[in-house]
User: What shape does this take?
Amino acid sequence: MSGKRFASVLLFGAPGVGKGTQGRILGSIPGFYHLSSGDVFRAVDVGSREGQEIYQFSSRGQLVPDELTIAIWRKALDGYIQLACYKPHEDLLVLDGIPRNIEQARMLTEYVDVLRVVYLVCEDEDAMVDRIKRRAIQENRADDANAEVIRHRFEVYRRQSTAVLEFYPPDVISQVDSLGSPTEVLSKVLGQLIPVQNDMLSR
Assistant: This one.
């Protein structure tokens, strides 16, 4: 990885709030590259040492240690650059699922320049639990099917992840209501990101 920091935006919010859905849609639009830490982790060979470590934590609804998280994320990002899937000079990097705490946010500053934080908000926790359980059935994610594990993730999120917002300057944080259809939410998200993308390309 080069010494240059990559122009990035964060999709931030509680589990089930729609970060992955919005990220996947954005990733299909030219000029955006979506990198989901969840997808990166699920692509790790479960038989490998790293895969076993990840499963031990995720199956209990716990966060993977910061050093391991960043190491796996960096390895994946390097690979996508080498394969020319992600072109840093053309694409705005859309991060989903990382950073999850302030220490990860600090560690990431070496690699990314966060230009906008899109904070997706949903006040209905029960609706998010139901959404996660439906996704678990559709995508065969055993660790997402247990309501107790899901609610523990919300507790972990509230205890650690919300502090991430305090790490970034208030003027780069945009709160977006995630209730509504994916298209309705996308319209709000693009309203925040298009000016950032245009500014990046004009540099």
In short: Residues 44 and 51 are 6 Å apart (CA to CA). The chain has a mean pLDDT of 88. The chain has one domain: 6-202. Strands lie at 6-12, 32-36, 92-96, 112-121, 173-177.
